[in-house]
Amino acid sequence: MSRSELVVLLDESYPQQLQSLAQQLQLPLVNPDQLADSHAEYGLGFFQQALGVKELASKAGPVSVDFTSGTAAHRRNMGGGELIVKAMGGSKQNRPSVVDITAGLGRDSFVLASWGFTVQMLERSPIVASLLADGLRRAQHCENFEVQDIAGRMQLWQGEAQDYLVALSDEQLPDIIYMDPMFPPSKKSALVKKDMRVFHAIVGKEQDGSELLATARAKARHRVVVKRPKKSAYLADQQPSFSLAGKAVRFDIYSLRAFVK
Ligand SMILES: C[S@@+](CC[C@H](N)C(=O)[O-])C[C@H]1O[C@@H](n2cnc3c(N)ncnc32)[C@H](O)[C@@H]1O
Q1: Which ligand 1 atom sits nearest the alpha carbon of residue 162?
Q2: Does ligand 1 come within 6 angstroms of the Cβ of 62?
């Protein structure tokens, strides 16, 4: 998505937030009545109190982060995410620290935080990070104490994961580094859900998966966990110590040091 394709949608209910977002992201602020003149394809704005990005010509809803209802709550209530928790290792009494270096919309981080992990999220895209920051803020201030508590275990840092990781001192190294790099578009990409198409348009292609894996393996204390489509090749052709496969995804675990029991 080029910068000219995305505009910030003016909304009288959030004048200051939208103005500072437009400034911060260096995007034009456009009155929704004048969208036709802007030739924009996507709009960043508030949709039912949540910051989101919407494909303007489409009937599909916006992409936004919501930890308080819908799928996130369902996964929390139904005890979803056992496989990702198993992939992290450690024990219930001793939850290791996790840095999620490809945070995206924070869904995996939220699952981990709901299982008691403290998660530092890193996100390179300033647009995605702004959606995630908004979702996190709403979760931290919502009426549900359980969600507040979970969101209290999640922190966001916007920037390049490489920069964050190389700046860590030995004392600051995380127990686990988790990564979920974007997959290259598959033959089924026409079927990819519309909201994910918008997400892909914001984030673009990723090409630094191999470098990231190398840095992660140098910086994690105990293990690096990589999420992949179940049948895809290992990231950077690097054979993991072991893998855990679910219906559609697989977690490749690169063990570095065993956890003390
Ligand atoms: C597939 S998405 C992750 C989805 C996420 N696991 C979730 O549950 O919502 C990958 C994300 O990682 C981010 N990313 C990729 N490379 C990065 C890097 N080097 N540093 C920081 N973020 C990165 C992309 O911008 C994108 O938002």
Answers
A1: 19
A2: no
Please give the distance, rounded to the nearest whole angstrom, from the Cα atom of residue 151 to the centre of ligand 1: 19
Angstrom CA distances, 58 to 31, 149, 211, stand at 18, 36, 36
CA distance 136 to 129: 10
Query: Mean pLDDT over residues 36-46, rounded?
Result: 89
Residue 254 has pLDDT above 80, yes or no: yes
- Cα distance between residue 108 and residue 104, in whole Å: 9
**What angle (nearest 5°) sits at the alpha carbon of residue 232, between those of residues 157 and 159?**
15
Reported CATH class of domain 70-255: alpha beta
pLDDT band at 7 (very low <50, low <70, confident <90, very high): very high
Nearest-atom index, ligand 1, CA of 108: 8
Chain-wide mean pLDDT for the chain?
Answer: 89
Going by pLDDT thresholds of 50, 70 and 90, the confidence category of residue 252 is: very high
Cβ(124) to ligand 1 under 6 A? yes
Q: Where are the domains of the chain?
A: 3-47, 70-255
165 lines ligand 1 (CB under 6 A): no
**Residue 28: what pLDDT?**
93
Ligand 1 atom at shortest distance from the alpha carbon of 159? 21
Determine which residue's CA is closest to atom 1 belonging to ligand 1.
Answer: 182
